[in-house]
Write a structure and sequence with these properties.
Blueprint: H1 2-29, E1 55-64, H2 67-100, H3 106-125, E2 129-137, E3 144-153, H4 154-166, H5 169-172, H6 177-189
Antiparallel strand pairs: 1-3, 2-3
Helix pairs in contact: 2-3, 2-6, 3-4, 4-6
Keywords: Coiled coil
Coiled coil: 65-126
Protein name: LPP20 family lipoprotein
Length: 193
């Protein structure tokens, strides 16, 4: 008898939770923007286009009377955001790596790392992958809007950096790829949060 009462209680709780979830989901769809505001849905944007522990990602928007110019603006904006995110991660990696190592002249080593990684980043940005693109024509103005999202693999970037850093004669003495990669992966994992 006690087991039957327990099963009925579990069923009632499950039914209550199901109703609450379904009601909650329906309410979210009916949310309206406050008076005087219009909710905007932006293409190539949202959580699936955020950087994470594997990929650097960025999106951009361009608008122009000319469709090709709108696309160029969107790509330029996305690349600038992507470069900024990569530079921030690499700066953190270099700072943490250099500080964790016993190196001859830390300032000189850090400057060499930064200079070489900038070269690699500029080279690798040319190899970004477009993961979303949408073009629309704004009916009121006749302008074109272009939305784009780009990504670059963190592992591709670290491999290219290893090639460049490992070939530098001055850094060869102090450079430990495995330690550098570990530090880089720690910085990448911060983007998951």
């Amino acid at each position: 008898m006690n087991l039957q009462r327990h099963n009925i209680s579990r069923f009632a709780l499950l039914a209550f939770l199901s109703i609450a979830v379904l009601t909650g989901c329906k309410k979210n769809k009916d949310i309206k923007a406050p008076e005087g505001e219009v909710l905007i849905s932006e293409y190539c944007s949202g959580e699936e286009f955020f950087s994470n522990g594997e990929f650097f990602r960025a999106n951009g928007l361009g608008e122009s009377m000319d469709q090709a110019t709108a696309k160029k603006k969107a790509l330029s904006n996305a690349r600038a955001d992507l470069a900024s995110a990569i530079n921030t991660t690499i700066k953190g990696t270099i700072d943490n790596y250099v500080n964790s190592r016993e190196m001859n002249n830390k300032e000189e080593v850090e400057e060499r790392f930064e200079g070489l990684t900038r070269e690699v980043i500029n080279q690798e940005l040319k190899g970004t992958k477009t993961i979303c693109q949408k073009a629309v024509k704004v009916t009121d103005s006749g302008n074109y809007k272009y939305y784009v999202a780009l990504e670059l693999s963190g592992q591709d970037l670290i491999s290219a950096m290893n090639e460049r850093l490992g070939s530098d004669e001055k850094l060869k003495i102090d450079y430990d790829y495995e330690k550098f990669k570990e530090t880089f992966n720690e910085e990448m994992n911060k983007m998951k949060k």
